[in-house]
Design brief:
mainly alpha; 3 helices; about 65% helix; about 0% strand
């Protein structure tokens, strides 16, 4: 069983607090990835998710009626 260090747990808490999502750390917990690799993957996922959400919000903006 993988145990988180204090610093790793703090990073996960920061990720959750700032993004509203829990970081996807299943592969780290299963021993298939290092913490750094799993965290980097979580960061990249959030970046992609945010960019897509931003794009969809922009597309949904009604035309100006000025």
């Amino acid at each position: 069983m993988i145990k988180y260090t204090v610093a790793q747990r703090a990073w996960c808490d920061t990720y959750h607090r700032e993004t509203g999502f829990h970081p996807m750390m299943d592969s780290f917990e299963a021993g298939r990835e290092t913490f750094h690799d799993a965290a980097t993957r979580a960061i990249r996922w959030y970046e992609t998710h945010s960019m897509e959400a931003h794009r969809l919000i922009q597309l949904a903006l009604p035309q100006r009626q000025d």
